[in-house]
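Example record used in the benchmark description.
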Amino acid sequence: MGRSSAQWLLGLVVLGCADPPASTPGDAPLEQPTPSASVSEPDGDAEAPEQAQIDAAPASDGDVDPSTSPRPPLPSDGDRVYPKSRFVWVRPHPNPDGWVGYLWLGGSARLKSKEPALGPGCPGPDNNSLWYAIEPFGYVCVDGKEATLDAKDPELLRTLPYAPRLDSPWPHQYGESRGLQKYKQLPTHAEQRSREWDLPDHLAAVKKALAAPEKAAEIDEKLKDVDLTIPTRKPFELGSYPATLNEPRKRLLPLSTVAWSTEVNHDGVPFLLTADFMWAPKTRVAPYPKVTFKGLEIGRDVQLDDDGQLRLAFFRGEDRPKYGRGPEGFVQQDATFERLSWVKLTGKSAEADDTTFLETVEPGVWVKKREAVVPEFREETPWNAPVGKPDTSGRAPKGRGTWMEANVWKGWLVAYEGTRIVYVTMISPGRGGTPAPGIPPIDTAATPTGSFKITGKFATATMAAPQEFIHSDVPWTQNFSGPHALHGAYWHDNWGERMSAGCVNVSPRDGRWLFYWTEPQIPDGWHGVRWRPSEDPATLFIVR
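Model output (structure tokens):
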């Protein structure tokens, strides 16, 4: 199997849920990593460098790092291979057949040996083999173009600052496209004009909106929520780099999503450097508010009750009122529980006027059950060992015995390690609920139910829906059933609600935690891994 076959296979194995976005994007199948044209190819008409300037805008701080700390340095613990592109394949043997994972710009893998292994498909300048065995398994073609053994490779060092930040739940910054063109190089005004038919009207609207920001949406609906600040950072040279860093598209339709790493002031016009190393006009992107919701890690964020149980409620949708119980029933109080907050419960419930109320640990405070997401916890593991007690069954699966359960209609997910509860959170599953008999889940935006294994894990993955709608660099993707995956969603914050086209959405913070916890474990420095059934454990995912 050659490179193109591997790319095609990845498109089959790593799928989201195909659906064109409405006001909020759904899920979409992973974009096949087809290399684009050379990065040196010019866009549009190469006339004199005339530029349409946007002036009188407030200055922004330039780079807004997705992490609160500086980028970690490249590892220096021995000899390593450093990817210079996307999809640097890890092969099971020193030849181009099959793949067991891949590396990505920003990662690295330790070598098992400094000496290359013999094998076809990766010839060196002297027709020698350039396959190198890496930890913990597999082989990488280190041809110097898409991968290098040199941590000081100039191309690598120029592009590394803009690689995804996997030390952060938000590997990039994200926004919604209002319809934009992408450029391999910062364009001249003539180049922009040749590709952006509405450029004069757009620039005129931007200047009006700068003078009256509160009326931006009235001036042009496409400017609603767009950040019009001018970056302080000047343009910089990326130099030469592998063409496979670019995705094979030059535009993003309205409602597609955009991922980017930094922004520059190009002669008065702001541009974003997208995750695939293209330049996009900043004034055609509406940044998403950062999604900060996170579930609860047992023992760190919340403790089990004295009896070893866990009783709690999350609050979805909006702030929810607290209720007091009096002689004449339940009375709404002035105080509320904030949206997406949580509270422990006592386990007591009461009925009044066809409504179920749940007692919280706050003295005298009750909540309506229908206004909350109330996770349910298993009494037994899938192999019939009692949850919360030592496992003496002798039937535990290999590995750490990891398993998860999610409820589509009730909007929760619970993660277990053996007989221990380790994590609980809210999810956003398919807006079509559970599948209808005889109808494929994908046709009704339903989430498939049953017991599944995690078969592949991909730190970031671009998803493509019909009609060219794109979800750029979706984080923390984990496949479990055909075209359905558990993945982070940066484009909405509606946890506990059915939102997707069938995938199980989690917040970026939940997504990262689950990604590094589930099995198969992703090797250190890798970007993606496939489950090897004969060798690796895999997390069981029960969806109901």
